[in-house]
Amino acid sequence: MSRIFEGQLSATGLKVALIQSRFNSFITDRLLDGALDALNRHGGDKSNYIIVKTPGAFELPLAAKKLAESGRYEVLVALGAVIRGLTPHFNYVATEATKGLAQVTLNTGVPVAFGLLICDTIEQAVERAGTKNGNKGFDAALTALEMTNLLYDLERG
Q1: Between the CA of residue 10 and those of 35, 38, 64, what are the distances in Å?
Q2: CATH assignment at residue 112
Q3: Which residues of the chain have pLDDT under 70?
Q4: For residues 63, 65, 68 and 73, what is the CA-based torsion angle, rounded to 10 degrees?
């Protein structure tokens, strides 16, 4: 029979850095609350978390890179909200933030859970930050736990 590797949803003992964009904080504060709730529900210890606030989503990758390279955190959770406006600015910020976070993961080997909302409207963002579509910050924290534990299992073979 084949071996199956699948990460567990456990935050016990994990050092977690949560990176929150302050822009659209009425959304990102809810994402942060959701992420913290997920970590706490899965055995996390608040003394093992840090919260880093960036001005906007575009700055998330640089903060993530510094945190990942520090070696002090086993997983990062990036939280932000980019909401379409009347100019193409939305496209550039969303694309570059997404690419930058992916690069941090691939270049450092430290999981960066993607909790960046990219929405056409404020209503869509609100729905994803704790109303009818759940809380994507909560979901990102679960992804962080699963990927971190999966990587540990793969290292042990």
Answers
A1: 13, 10, 22
A2: 3.40.50.960
A3: none
A4: 10
